[in-house]
Amino acid sequence: MKSPLEYTVLQPANAQPDKKYPVIFVMHGRGANEHDLLPLVEELQNDFIIFGIRGDVPEGPGFAYFTNISHGNPDRASFDRCIEKLQGVIDYAAKTYPIDTNYQYLLGFSQGAILSMSLAVAMGNKIKGIVSMNGYIPTFVKEDYPAVPGENVSIYLSHGEVDHVYPLEHGLDNKQFFEGRGNKAHFSSYPVGHGITPGNRDEFVKWLYDDVAAK
Predict the structure, then answer these.
(1) Model-level pTM greater than 0.90?
(2) Phospholipase/carboxylesterase/thioesterase domain: from which residue to which, for each copy (predicted)?
(3) Residue pLDDT, tens place only, 121-144
(4) Does 210 map to a domain?
(5) Which of 2, 16, 88, 138 is the most exposed place for a label (fewest CB within 10 A)?
């Protein structure tokens, strides 16, 4: 079995035989690659298996996961193919690495955030939680994706207060959407544009540890 998308994996240096670990699947923004966000989470690798997943659509100096018809309007066919491939990566990882499938997390920024939230809708309670930063949920995901039970998915959302790419209103809409599905959704905004602050990073790292500990 081969992964549908290229990836880099970080594993605990002193992994215990026969122990299964929580996993974080990390998804980058447009024009970046699978290594872009790993410095934000690399300190977690003694407690999590961490996958940096590369999009397969060339864009600028790096890659994207899907194409857009216009800004904020993904090409549906490209997007759906991407969702299918990402689910394939998650399935592949569970069969290939010592992963505790009760603790599968998604983490994404910008386009990766869009996908993290959309996968939470598509996969429901197969996912333990998501960290989604500076993204939005496409209308067709909200309206057309099958209603998969997902009330147990933990949601961490953050957004830049002066984000010029996806304005703050998107972040507030994301929170409202997930709360409407019965999820407990944490939301934070930060005095930044389309980016991640050190405080944002520290908060989501703590959130991840707390969510795993909560069982």
Answers:
(1) yes
(2) 21-197
(3) 999 999 999 999 999 999 999 999
(4) yes
(5) 2
